[in-house]
Amino acid sequence: MKTILIATGNAHKVQEFKDILDILNIDVKLISPKDFNDYSEPEENGSSYQENSYIKAKYYYDKYHYPTLADDSGVEIDFFGGKPGIYSARFLSDMSTKERNLYITDLMKDSKKRNASFHCVLTYIENDVVKKYEGILNGKIAQKPIGEEGFGYDPIFIADGFETTNAALGQDFKNRHSHRAIALRKWASDFEK
C-alpha cells in the first residue's frame, strides 16, 4: 500500500481526505506532517491557489521525501468582489468562525448578489513529477448560518441544486460533492492508471 503525505497540519482536512478517498475506493495510507517530530509550515506567499498548493507540496515533498498531495482552497463571494479567495482561512481573522459567518450574512442581508464558489487546487508530487487538479463548487451565500457539520464557510454556503447549506447536508454530502471531492476524483482517476 502506497503512503501519501497530505501537506497540511489541519486534522479536519486530513480526515476529509481520508473519507473522500474511502468513498473513491483508493487504498492508500495517509500521513501528515504532524506525524513527524519536526512539524513546520511553509510560508504561503503565492498569489493564486495553484501557487500556494505547489508551495506546500514542494516544501513537504523536499522535507520528507514521500509522494505528497497538497491543496489550497477558498471561497470566492461575488458580494466581496471575489474575496476572500486565497485568504479565506485568514479572512476576518480577529473573529471566530461563527462570528465571521454571522458578520458576512448580516452584511449581505439585503443583497441580491449572493453567488459564491468554493475552489480547490491539488498539487501532487511523486518522483519529482508535478501534477495539478482543480475542483470548483458553485453556489450562493445563505441568508443565515445553518447546520453544525463541516467547518469554515460550510454553514453559509448553499451548493447549486440544493436548498440548504453544506453544514446542514452533512459530512457525507460534502465528501461526495465538495470542491475538494471534485479535485480528488480527478487525482484518483490519474492515480489508478
Attribute tags:
single chain; 193 residues; alpha/beta; Maf protein; 6-stranded mixed β-sheet
Annotate the secondary structure layout:
Layout: E1 2-6, H1 11-23, E2 28-31, H2 49-64, E3 68-77, H3 97-107, E4 115-126, E5 129-141, E6 157-159, H4 166-169, H5 171-177, H6 179-191
Parallel strand pairs: 1-2, 1-3
Antiparallel strand pairs: 3-4, 4-5, 5-6
Helix pairs in contact: 5-6
Short description:
By secondary structure, the chain is of the alpha/beta class.
Can you put this structure into words, describing what you see?
The protein has 193 residues and is α/β, with parallel strands linked by helices. The chain has one domain (2-191): Maf protein. Helix content is 33%, strand content 24%. A 6-stranded mixed β-sheet has the order 2-1-3-4-5-6. The model has no long low-confidence stretch (mean pLDDT 95).
- Helix/strand/pairing class, anyone? alpha/beta
CATH topology: Maf protein
| Uncertain runs | none
Helical run tally: 6
